[in-house]
Amino acid sequence: MASHQESSALLSTAGPRKTAASTLVFISLAITTAVALSAAAAFSFLFFSSSSSPSPHSTEALSSRPLSKLKHPVVLIISSDGFRFGYQFKTDLPNINRLIRNGTAAELGLIPVFPTLTFPNHYSIVTGLYPPYHGIINNYFTDPIDGQVFNMGSHEPKWWLGEPLWETVSNHGLKASTYFWPGSEVHKGSWNCPSNYCMPYNESVPFEERVDTVLSYFDLPSDQIPSFMTLYFEDPDHQGHQYGPDDVRITNAVVEIDALMGRLIRGMEERGVFQDVNIILLGDHGMAGTCDKRVIALDDLAEWVKIPKEWVQSYTPLLSIRPPPGYSTSDIVAKMNEGLESGRVGNGEFLRVYLKEDLPSRLHYSDSYRIPPIVGLVGEGFTVKQTRSSGQECGGAHGYDNAFFSMRTIFIAHGPRFARGRKVPSFENVQIYNMVTRILKIDGASNNGSVSFADAVVLPTHSNLE
Ligand SMILES: [Zn+2]
Question: Which GO CC annotations does the UniProt entry carry (predicted)?
Fold first, then answer.
């Protein structure tokens, strides 16, 4: 009760400014996006001019380096979950910095897809598709037609649309391996999650064991070394949720990821393959700090419209609502926004509700029957709950608008097909699929990435190489 009065008091002082504040929040958001998008388009011309400054390696900037030991190109994608862009500057990370210094990195980070959640993003990375087209529109959701529920343990092929890289690779007669990745256990096309090459998800496997297994693939006869490999770590996402992005325990987790990169690099060097492997180190999304005083409660909207919890498919940071048949969704949206803009709902200016077809098109989040008809965009660091509680917890969350800088993650690529010491402008992770197919010299499935973008980042090969 006390906290309710407290927030009401905050509310009345915030009241007169609410229109300006909410306009500001969403305008600044739109500007950020416009900048990001135009940067992605405009900077593609600048890749070569902004690339490697003259260095001992400058002659190599024009084409890839020949393989010394491997008989075929190999791409290893490593995901460090929730590795927010900027974590790499928290402390000295010698191994990650070695990859950055001698590789190609997104100077201001990799842009996740919306919603900036783990499953939608990991599956966009390996399919090149926005969530409505690959089908994984949230970490959990209900199919409105048959009522079946998708969650992070669902492996039935019906959920997983598009063609993930391991399927593309095996369709071309090449080998792929997955040490955890959302969707990797699903049998699709010629991919049947072969034992020893496709690990069933088990979060208790020590990170070192995962690295050592990937290294062991390089001890196999040449024709059995996978052309495409994935490797996944749950950290620092885990610590980010619990303590927020600024906690010292994030720094410690990132130091551990760096040590794992050191273990990987050493193991590859011992096998003579480090310079031959194209390593892409990335994350799926960033992390924003949250605190209970930044809560928006749906019950506070009751004066305008009642939103029963049964209608809510997910609360935060992606609010999605599916009212039962017979309700006017546009009427509900109008009443919710009226309440949120009234100045009488705590933090109301930090939630804006849309019919999914009215969401900004830059979010690419409407074209799927699986997406509920009403979607809310939540202000950075805010939390939507059904009921206002008296909690005072602080932590971290992701899932917000991908225009927020805090949602960006890292892209660091090192290997024969990536220029040394090059910085590229930020880009969306749907571009990565084409980079991998380009390196492996195979035709990929159609997707939302552009071929010209992949060509600008991946070095061309000499015809007489490899
Ligand atoms: Zn994640």
Answer: vacuole
